[in-house]
Design brief:
This protein is of the alpha/beta class. Helices cover 57% and strands 10% of the residues. The protein contains ten helices and five strands; from the N terminus they run H-H-H-H-E-H-E-H-E-H-H-E-H-E-H. Helix 1 packs across helix 4, helix 2 packs parallel to helix 4 and helix 4 runs parallel beside helix 5. It binds CO-5-methoxybenzimidazolylcobamide.
Length: 236
Amino acid sequence: MTILLGSIYIEFAMNKEQLQKIAVCVERGKIDKKSPHPPDLQGQDGADELTALALKVGILPNEILSHALIEGMKVVGERFRNNEIYLPDVLMSARAMNVAMEHLKPFFTSGNMQYKGRIILGTVAGDLHDIGKKIVGMFFEGGGWEVIDCGVDVSAPQFLQSIEKHAPDAVGMSALLTTTMVNMQDIVKGIKDQYPDIKVIVGGAPVTEDFAGKIGADFYSPDPQGALDQLTGPRS
Ligand code: B1M
């Protein structure tokens, strides 16, 4: 019994250390082994290699996403807010996170889910943040949805064009800036005026349930799983 508990503890500690190493890569913007940034980590494994290894040793993709990547990015946000790091550093962190997410994507998007519908996703006009939206897209794909990702800086006419082309069941919007979340209002109105049956869901760090209600969105979720559940119903 003691030996069993001991080995479980060792595995837990090793996994925690591995997750911390990945989080540091996101915090420091260390993309992969060959990347020269940051200079003090030259020649060391980056987010690319460490995420691949974490999966290989059996750490769950969800654990990597929540406890390494999103945690690491939270630290980046705090440091940026406190002027301890600058925009180019944040960009390197975003690249490190994206590289790691590529390894996780197959785990979130595979599965034999019954087809649930088609959703158009986009980050709203004026906003270039796309990491959260990409994660939302991965959850929807894994949940049986066909995802049409319109990218970033998507205006109301662009959302409408995409709706005309793809005839979706739902539209999901993301905004990370207090200055761009207000652009959701025009987009939601444009969609609802022409396509009242299409469900609209909004999210992103500054967006709240109250705001979503005020602009006429059907749903709001602070996280990807919640967004999926709102449109499809919770997992049984
Ligand atoms: Co910018 N940035 N950024 N940035 N950036 C924030 C958002 C900021 C909070 C940083 C800070 O000050 N602490 C701040 C916004 C302040 C505010 O408005 N309140 C900020 C700023 C000011 C800016 C610039 C204006 C800086 C400048 O130029 N001076 C500039 C704006 C550019 C623009 O968009 N026009 C800018 C630029 C950038 C980069 C390009 C360098 C880069 C983005 C790269 C990219 O996305 N490809 C970047 C980054 C990386 C960040 C932080 C550090 C991290 C964002 C992120 O990816 N988080 C961010 C600080 C922070 O959030 N801690 C910050 C991880 C991601 C998984 O979380 O996107 O919240 P998130 O998504 C979550 C949930 O919100 C939710 O699920 C996701 C997964 O859990 N969710 C949904 C998201 N969308 C959803 C949709 C749904 C449902 C749930 O339904 C459809």
